[in-house]
Design goal:
- The structure holds 2 protein chains of 2 kinds.
- Chain A is α+β, with helices and mostly antiparallel strands.
- Chain A is globular and about 65 Å long.
- Chain A contains 16 helices and 9 strands.
- In chain A, the strands form 3 sheets. In chain A, strands 1-2-3-4 form a 4-stranded antiparallel β-sheet. A 3-stranded antiparallel β-sheet of chain A has the order 7-8-9. Chain A has a two-stranded antiparallel ribbon with strand order 5-6.
- The longest helix of chain A is centred in the first third of the chain and has 29 residues.
- Chain A has a single domain, classed as Cytochrome-c3 Hydrogenase, chain B (Orthogonal Bundle).
- The N terminus of chain A is likely disordered.
- Chain B has a single domain, classed as Beta Polymerase, domain 2.
- Chain B is built from 3 helices and 7 strands.
- In chain B, helix 1 packs antiparallel against helix 2.
- The longest helix of chain B has 11 residues.
- The termini of chain B are far apart.
- Classes of the chains: A alpha+beta, B alpha/beta.
- At the A-B interface, helix 2, helix 4, helix 9, strand 7 and strand 8 of A face strand 3, strand 5 and helix 3 of B.
Chain lengths: 394, 144
């Protein structure tokens, strides 16, 4: 009877939340994540606050490690294709591309890939990059209180995803690439549809400059906040839009093209000026525009011919090391495939596969930069890096 | 002969290429840190670090990139129970890569303060070693 009394009930109900630990000497500890409305993905930071200023920040990881690298050791190259795109769902064509290039180099069949397949790979990769950047614009706008941003950006992302759906047959995990080519050809009707949609998308891009860059709320929370110097990023090995926002012209598509079509159409590198939150958004908007241009030009110059250079599933591997690097939407997506060349009933399994994600470096860079920052700026800064924790922990 | 050339002559065991054409420099483990420092001075940036478990050896591979020279891989072999110098003083970006190699293989990087579990639950030990069988691991409590 005592247990049901009102006092004991209210005492449990109004117990202090466990995430706040008050320590008189040193201030307040606060857990941002892993369940937090503004943290994307199951990860977070344990921060120590003095007043509103963060004095210490420790990353909390370990919720989404899937052991992908171990799983690769029990898959032949053909089965590995499906696993490769599950590294990060947001930009999976580029992840699969990194894997496919790596395996093709190891087998020495890179030259067998038909030109049409290379073009289709690049088109799919660019469309996926556009979709990924729109997802960033939607969620980042939402985090900063631009409630209209997700409405527009998700609509635009859907337009691109519908195109990829019509090309590949799936909306999220496309499984489009094959070792030696691509899985499906683009029909003339799809090409016309894609051109029409990309033209429409290009028209709508002006709205993003209005929506984000002329918004006062947005400017207040991003301009001059979370500034990252180029030297610091280079020391940490950060690549991708974050590095380009700090004025370092490093884009693999332009500096050392890994696909022939990038060489054919040329890629202009989008650069920021100061390396603050604002520039990181600006660079991504510019990159969407550039990707639209690249995709449009590739659709115009799409060569005729076969789409698959090897007409059977590839289940064997040659002995050796193979490293491939691809410019993804978050930086350099890397696959190291090591094979000893053995062959079993199921085909040859790679001896070791290492997936290196550029987001890993960002985790500790963010923790370092959070020190001394206001708590209210933290979310604006963390999310401007567009980190994919599922991809980082693999 | 310059100091850099002398260091490379002492350190490098073998030169080769991976399948895509990136040069690989195999260096002696005692010179590994110095060679990485040498490349850092030549405006190379750190990209990633990988580890491989061969039968009784571990291989540590570091991918570096420079805008002028392109990519290069520095690789070194160490024995079981042997330690290797950490490169976080040169490239702080290697912090979590080394911690991951420690967690997955048990390789100890001298001087890295973050050698603890970051990704796997407490009861899983060195899962990427070859003797660790792929299995359904019962997951216990998560502590942070």
């Amino acid at each position: 009877m005592e247990a049901l009394s009102t006092t004991s009930f209210s005492a449990t109900r109004h117990a202090p939340p466990t995430t706040f630990i008050y320590d008189e000497d040193s201030g307040i500890y606060l857990s941002m994540g892993p369940q937090h409305p503004a943290m994307h993905g199951p990860w977070g930071f344990r921060v120590k606050l003095q007043g509103e200023v963060i004095v210490e920040a420790e990353p909390i990881t370990g919720y989404i490690h899937r052991g992908l690298e171990k799983l690769f050791e029990k898959r032949n190259p053909q089965q590995g294709l499906i696993l490769a795109e599950r590294v990060c769902f947001m930009d999976n064509v580029n992840w699969q591309l990194a894997y496919v290039i790596s395996v093709e180099n190891l087998l020495g069949v890179r030259d067998l890939v038909p030109r049409r397949a290379e073009w289709l790979r690049a088109i799919a990769a660019e469309l996926n990059r556009i979709a990924s950047h729109f997802l960033f614009l939607a969620t980042y706008g939402h985090d900063l209180g631009l409630m209209l941003a997700p409405v527009f950006a998700f609509r635009e992302r859907d337009l691109v995803i519908n195109l990829l759906d019509a090309l590949t047959g799936h909306r999220i995990t496309y499984n489009y690439l094959r070792i030696g080519g691509v899985a499906r050809d683009a029909k003339p009707s799809w090409i016309n549809n894609a051109k029409r949609n990309l033209k429409e998308l290009r028209k709508r891009m002006n709205r993003y400059y209005d929506l984000y860059l002329s918004s006062e709320i947005f400017a207040e929370r991003t301009r001059g906040k979370g500034v990252l110097a180029a030297e610091e990023l280079i020391r940490h090995g950060v690549t991708g839009p974050v590095l380009r926002a700090s004025r370092v012209p490093l884009d693999l598509r332009a500096t050392s093209p890994y696909l022939e079509p990038y060489e054919a159409v040329g890629v202009n590198i989008a650069l920021g000026r100061n390396g603050d939150n604002y520039d990181r958004v600006l660079v991504r908007i510019k990159e969407i525009e550039e990707s639209i241009r690249i995709a449009e030009e590739l659709l115009e110059t799409l060569p005729y011919g076969k789409i698959l250079g090897i007409d059977q599933p590839v289940i064997s591997l040659r002995r050796g090391y193979s490293y491939s690097v691809v410019e993804g939407s978050r930086g350099w997506f890397q696959f190291l495939v090591v094979s000893t060349g053995g062959f079993s009933k199921k085909g040859s399994m790679p001896y070791r596969v290492k997936i290196s994600n550029p987001c890993i470096q960002m985790i500790y860079l963010i923790a370092e930069k959070l020190r001394g920052m206001m708590l209210s700026d933290a979310i604006a800064f963390i999310n401007s890096m567009d980190l994919c924790i599922g991809g980082a922990e693999r | 002969m310059s100091e850099a050339a002398r260091l490379l002559e002492r350190a490098v065991i073998e030169r080769g290429y991976e399948a895509g054409g990136i040069p690989i420099l195999r260096v002696r483990p005692e010179y590994y840190h110095d060679v990485i420092g040498l490349f850092a001075g030549m405006e190379y940036m750190f990209i990633s670090l990988s580890a491989i478990h061969w039968r009784d050896l571990f291989e540590v591979m570091v991918l570096l990139y420079s805008l002028e020279q392109g990519p290069v891989i520095i690789s070194t072999f160490i024995r079981e129970n042997e330690e290797i110098d950490s490169i976080v003083d040169v490239f702080p970006g290697a912090y979590l890569y080394e911690a991951e190699a420690y967690e997955m293989f048990g390789i100890v990087f001298r001087g890295n303060p973050g050698l603890r579990k970051h990704f796997t639950p407490p009861e899983v030990e060195t899962p990427l070693r070859k003797e660790y069988e792929l299995q359904e691991t019962p997951i216990g409590g998560w502590r942070h």
